[in-house]
Amino acid sequence: MELSPAITRRRRERWFYLGITIAFVITVFAGFAPTYYLRPAFTATPLMPLLHLHGLVFSSWLVLFLVQTTLVSAHRTDIHRRLGIVGGVIAGLMVLVGFITAVIRAGQGASPPGAPPALVFLVIPVGDILVFSILVSAGFYFRRRPDVHKRLMLFATISILAAAVARLPFSFIATGGPPVFFAITDIFILVILLYDLITLRRVHRTTALASLLIIGSQPLRLMIGGTQAWLSFATWLTHWVR
């Protein structure tokens, strides 16, 4: 029996969202395996409790995102909607814990290999948190618009992937620094743009706006990070956690 075009489109959409979500999980695991997920195999140095909390909260978001995507694929949107409350709580914790962790780590002088000095680099995680907050808040607001909601949540997750990409075990990433790991992260955006073009014959408005927000913020952050105004602000922020 031949499936109708509508059923075929929905099935293809479910597989796309599930596939790209799995790619997110693999990327994060690969990036943070040496320093978090498989840390005992790489070093005996204990991880500070705040970083444990940070890893737990952000990992919870990815696990929930995978569960939510799987539920939609399994036509269990009833459970998906109920778990949305959990997603809101985790998202709030991510913003709070993510910001505190970024400021404390900058105060400790920490930044990924190939990245600029800690106070300059602080603009990147703070920018990630801001962009994530905008996208995830819009995603919850448009929760009754499935085509908009799912894209916003997808892009919200992409907006926090740069930290994992920056830690992937490839020397050219460490050598290239932020421009390179931003560019690699943006491959996920390119995939979604191509998906829209293939399936819709156009780029969905949400895809276009979210793409502009994420990609546009990247060079802006790099420019802001080197200004005296930002360094003064970052110095003031980190002063409170030293």
Features of this protein?
242 residues
Strand content of the residues, in percent? Answer: under 5%
Structural category is: mainly alpha
Tell me the Rg in angstroms.
Answer: 19 Å
Name the helix and strand elements from N-terminus to C-terminus, one letter apiece. Answer: HHHHHHHHHHHH
Number of separate helices: 12
Instruction: Let me know the number of strands.
Output: 0
Report the biggest beta sheet as strand number plus sense, adding barrel if it closes: none
Taking all residues together, what is the mean pLDDT?
91
Low-confidence stretches: none
Q: State the distance separating the first and last CA atoms.
A: 68 Å
List the domain count as a whole number: 1
Shape: globular
**How much helical structure, as a percent, in the residues?**
over 70%
List the helices and strands and how they pair.
Layout lengths: L4 H33 L1 H4 L6 H25 L3 H31 L10 H4 L1 H19 L4 H13 L3 H5 L4 H6 L1 H23 L4 H21 L2 H12 L3
Give a description of the structure.
The chain contains 12 helices and no strands. By secondary structure, the protein is mainly α. The protein has one domain (9-239). Helix 1 (5-37) packs antiparallel against helix 3, helix 3 (49-73) packs antiparallel against helix 4 (77-107) and helix 6 (123-141) runs antiparallel to helix 11. The longest helix has 33 residues, at 5-37. The model has no long low-confidence stretch (mean pLDDT 91).
